[in-house]
Amino acid sequence: MNTKEYERLTTRYLDCIYRVALNGCRNYADAEDVVQNTFLKLWQKENDFEDDEHVRKWLIRVALNECNSLWRSFWKRRTTFLEELPGEPIFSTPEKSNLFYAVRELPAKYRQVVHLFYFEGYSVREIAEILKLSETAVQTRLLRARQKLKEKLKEAWE
Amino acid sequence: MKSDVNADKKNRVYYQETFNEVHASQALAGKVMNMANKKEKKGMTTLTKKVAVAVAALAFLLVGSNGVVYAATGSTWIGGFFRDITDFTGAITGTEYVQATEEVDISVGTATVQGVEVLLPLELKFSDKDKIPFRFLEGVSVAEVKVVDANGADVDVTLPAEISAMVVDGVAQMELQLSGQQLTAGKEYHLILETFYGLSKADQPLGVKGYWECEFIVK
Asked: Hey, are the CB atoms on A156 and B14 less than 8 Å from each other?
């Protein structure tokens, strides 16, 4: 991939991959590591993508794998929830802040599905492809995540 | 079922509006962008190497021949890039964006005298407002400028306070308050700016460096 194309794709997808990474990790430092590793892989890859949508899906897949690799590591499995670190987003309303932290409290497997469905706009079938799960598993995770968000956010989440 | 669909739509809007407010930091953007400059690509195959050598030789010829003409324009060769700021131990303490001259247009209006100060309108415009780091910047500030006369001699002018302005659609407009007892009405001067700071919510100010020189007259 040439530098110009890399810069174009980085400009376009940096925030997207950061959000995916933040939903796959529990702290900002890990999310930043995931983002860097993901874009390093993009830079090292031959440019054989069909279109930008193909790139987006590939980046999301790589970012989620990177998140999963982090959690498989010996040290991370023994790390409890980390303290709040610099880099906390500032939201324009308390409702948005409540949703953000409610999502962050969900187990990682639910956060990933919720984010791909509600933010990236992928269908259950597409999420199943990306996460290499059955459609039923995705639907189940989505259902449980919705229930948990409803419990936490009451009427703000229908 | 229908209410489920409507609820999903409402939840999706709520979710998207929330996460649209989450952005990667400037520092992370800088690191990711710089990867293309720092990291080596994977090993190439023999065929790729041969092609690369041929392309490099051709590029060298083309660039070499045009380089003479291009150099005469006085323009810089490459765009801006992020650079780590390190302390005396070598530890990274921040990030700055350097060589931004070609990526930011700076122009000034006519300066007017107001008491002991000279007010100089300044407009700062990003050539590509969607490019990193400019798309992150919500405001800019100027803390230091230099003024020279038509002969290039330094004029003793200072900026008593840092001036900041919001960025709207890639453009920021501000009025510099120069302590201008050395500035004479009717004469031509040049304002030289080498650093301004990009401001964004929840991020350290980002030093943006380049070289901008604008001519102005004091009315």
From this structure: yes
- Which residues of chain A are at the B interface, by a Cβ-Cβ cutoff of 8 Å? 3, 6-7, 10-11, 14-15, 18-19, 22, 32, 35-36, 39-40, 43-44, 87-92, 95-96, 99-100, 103, 114-115, 118-119, 121, 146, 156-158
Answer whether 0.90 is exceeded by the pTM.
no
In this structure, which long-range contacts are made by residues A83-87, counting pairs with CB atoms below 8 Å and at least 24 apart in sequence?
Answer: A85/A27, A85/A28, A85/A29, A86/A28, A87/A28, A87/A32, A87/B25, A87/B202
Q: What is the pLDDT along chain B (219 residues), one digit of tens a residue?
A: 455 667 777 888 889 999 988 888 888 888 898 887 765 555 455 555 666 666 666 665 555 544 444 444 444 456 788 888 887 777 778 888 998 999 999 999 988 888 888 899 999 999 988 888 898 899 999 988 989 888 888 888 888 788 899 999 999 999 998 886 778 888 889 999 999 999 987 778 899 999 999 999 988
Of all residues in chain A, the one with the smallest CA distance to B25 is A87
Q: Which helix (H) or strand (E) holds B113?
A: strand B112-114
φ and ψ at B178, to 5 degrees?
-95, 135
Q: Which amino acid is at A128?
A: A
